[in-house]
Amino acid sequence: MKKPSEAEVIRAKLQESIIGLGERSIRKSYYPELQQRIIELERANAELSNEIAEREKSEQALHKKENYFRALFENAGDAIFIEDEMHRIIDVNTRACELLNYQREELLRMHIPDVHAVKKDTQKVGPIKEDLLRSHGIPFETIDITKDGRFVPVEITTVKLTTIDENLVLSIVRDITERKLAEVEKEKLQSQLIQSQKIESVGRLAGGVAHDYNNMLGVILGHADLALLKARETHPLHDHLKAIRHAARRSAELTQQLLAFARRQAIAPQIMNLNAAVTTTLQMLQLLIGEDIALDWLPGSETYPVKIDPSQFDQLLMNLCINARDAISGAGRICIETRKTAIDEAYCATKLYFVPGDYAVLIVSDNGIGMDRQTQAKIFEPFFTTKNLGRGTGLGLATVYGIVKQNSGFINVYSEPGQGTTFSIYLPLAVGLTLADIKSPGSTIATNNTETILIVEDEQNLLHICQTMLLDLGYNVLAAGTPEAALRLAADHKDGIDLLLTDVVMPGMNGRELQTQMQKSNPDVKCLFMSGYTANVISHHGVLDQDVHFIQKPFTFKEISGKIVETLNRKAA
């Protein structure tokens, strides 16, 4: 049954009073006044009823809003704290309890400073700065500490709540652990990118310097070889000439390392079995590292075909083993392993320049002194070395880097100070390919030659020595310093030209374009390219096509003789 309102109760009492008065014979003259009083009371009752209804409606709306905001408060994705002027926590939401691993009742007995990390090695915002940021409502970062002692990086935004009797502060606390991890990973990737760009820049410089340097070495080697043909072993200058040639060859090897680092080295890759390639070099590697260091060979159980220049692979493995040897003081152990792996997108997301696919992995590890992070960041830089003066050029690992990149591979390095180092070389598996037959140049010098060779070289000293060497070999030689001059000589020479020996990079027209022009009037002409590095007009990414004949500058008398015989496709004498 509905409870009567206050107005209804008053009205009922008045009516009872009136009836009581009538019964006691009150004069009728009072009735109109009483009736008017009743009407006024009814009007007041109606107003009071409306007021009470509006109040109840407002209370219901307020209760609904309270439930709405409580739901928002409790279900917010960020932790929310409400504190008073004394920094006492007076309310928290569920996320705050989850973030700090406290029960609500526990937090309501604590102060805001209790949840901030206080150790000296944290990145906590100082109290003065924090108060300043709080007063302006500016988001700031600090570190909170959980009940179990974990540190949680957070971002805090505060809002002032002013009520009638107190001033409160609402703090929205966001867990930024993932953001911080992402920032660290971004910095790491940025560092890798800068390192890669630095190496690329030095590589371009190294390649350009090596190109010109090789031309000069070619001149030195050519003159030394020609002089040795005339200065027999009994000649007083014979040993001096041999020393000159040896020094030039050593300089050429150094240049080859620069070219390999710059990924401009001319290479002739072939399909090879990774395990077999390592096995054939073990004896040489053991002699190289010495008797005090044990060499373990742990081949994988499968066949791992990879496409790489055999000489490059030998150079790569040798440099890794030398680097491992130099990291070991006294007796030690080097281990070479092979295996197969598949790199997926998830792994590539954390490794800059890695590409998904199937790879053969060559692993060279040692139990040497290891490296710290700062040293690891520089090991592939040319001329960077931690070895004593005279122990190395600093090009070994730079060469490894260049070879691996030139063959579309990747390198991963793991090392800790005092715990040794492991280099993992990832080379793409040559799936579906077979072993290729690679021709080798003749080993003897052919002197009874009758063919006509047109030499094109813009470096005059090198042009002169090449012409002299080929004349000594018995060839008919035409020499030109520019492609245009070569085309004019070819047009004037009615007897035909058997071989075009041309530099790759020249002003106005490159060697490939010169070959095309020559073949228009002389379609049977053979072509042998020479260069200090391989230009893109001949190859893609420095890898020679199978139908292109190429000789790397600088070359010896025997090398140019054998390469010409091979290009002319006839047997050596």
- Whole-number mean pLDDT: 77
Level-1 CATH class name of the largest domain: Alpha Beta
Instruction: Name the assembly state.
Output: single chain
Question: What is the structural class?
Answer: alpha/beta
How many separate structural domains?
A: 5
Q: Radius of gyration from the CA trace?
A: 44 Å
Helical content stands at: 40-55%
Give the overall silhouette: elongated
Question: What is the CA-CA span between the terminal residues?
Answer: 128 Å
Full CATH superfamily name of the largest domain: Histidine kinase-like ATPase, C-terminal domain
Helix tally? 16
Q: How do the strands of the widest beta sheet line up side by side?
A: 2-1-5-4-3
Strand segment tally: 17
Based on the coordinates given, report the CATH architecture of the largest domain: 2-Layer Sandwich
Strand content: 15-25%
CATH topology of the largest domain: Heat Shock Protein 90
Point out poorly predicted stretches: 119-126, 389-393, 433-443
